[in-house]
Design a protein that fits this description.
This protein is α+β, with helices and mostly antiparallel strands. The mean pLDDT is 85. The protein is flat and about 40 Å long. Helices cover 28% and strands 37% of the residues.
């Protein structure tokens, strides 16, 4: 496991291209295995690409050939949570 700190992450999405993000990993005192990670766009072009991603009504998660719509994945998770007696409230994308 890498120590907490800043890293650059590069993601490729078939609809918007490459998105470069700076990640800041913050450790939680007393819980070595838990972290909070914040991703921030590196530049204006990365910010625009993220805005384009957010504008997709029901994005495909995964590759275009084998991926599945986000709504389908969230629905399955909610159904599984209900079967297991857990809170089934999973927010859908806006």
């Amino acid at each position: 496991m890498a120590a907490p700190g800043r890293r650059v992450k590069v993601f490729r999405h078939h609809a918007v291209g490459t998105v470069n993000l700076s990640s800041s990993s913050l450790s939680i005192d007393g819980m070595a295995e838990h972290r909070i990670v914040v991703y921030t766009p590196l530049g204006a072009q990365d910010t625009r690409r993220i805005e384009r991603l957010r504008a997709i009504p029901d994005p495909v998660v995964g590759c275009p050939e084998h991926g599945r719509p986000l709504s389908e994945i969230l629905r399955e998770k909610a159904e599984q949570a209900t079967r297991e007696g857990r809170n089934a409230e999973i927010p859908l994308p806006r």
